[in-house]
Amino acid sequence: MTITNVRELFALWENLSAIAADIGVSYRTVAEWRRQGRVPPHYWGALVLSARQRGVKGVTMNLLKRLPTAEQVADFAGIISLWPTAAAMASDLGVPPSTVRAWKSRNHIPADLWRQVVHSATNRGIKGVTYATLSGIASRNGKPRGHNVSNHPVECHQ
What we know:
This protein has about 160 residues and is an all-alpha fold. Helix content is about 55%, strand content about 0%.
């Protein structure tokens, strides 16, 4: 069987609770990943280890790299979920974690912070978070594109 998405990947385990317990996150977090079709790269190693320990065959870093990328995430909540936690994204952007959680629940990232979001994603190795991705999500959501936001790549130095 060829795994082409997160739902198929997670079906290899007995249930979502088993995945959550193995990698040290809540059931709700794993359910959200399944809903959004994306596992944050920060958790890939733990997921591969869980698969090995449970005898789940075929789960490798290469498989996880082939699954949907940020460009395929449908909404801002999905973009936010690419970070290990809301607190991690908040720290990167200099805002309180409660602000990031509110953005996620409202499916919104303020356009004036897109440059910082792209920069943070680049520094964390989160692929595909670009101005074009964010703008596309905003357009699909019927929200206007941010003003003073360039679609050109930004240089990020670690």
